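User: Hey, quick favor. My workstation is busy. Could you predict this chain's structure for me?
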Amino acid sequence: MLKNNFAVIFDMDGVMVNNSLYHRKAWRLFSKKYNFKLSEGEFKNHIYGKINSEILKYIFGKKLTKKQVADYAREKESIYRSIYKKVVTVKGLINLLRLLY
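Assistant: No problem, here it is.
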């Protein structure tokens, strides 16, 4: 029987992988398609740290159906996946994981 069981929980975006610039670029490409522009202040106050449904309701400024939210979120995530091809871990993550192992 193991005496020292423990668990570590990580968030992924920005904690394990350095992908925030790719999410930002994906939101910019998505917004361009729908003819709106996100300012730096809007990213700070309404995008970073929010889930897609909150972001989309902010962007479109109206009540969206669950289907609309799901469709728009899928579209934005598709853009993200098309531009984020190589996973880049944050500095020090691999060493930390080795220490935990």
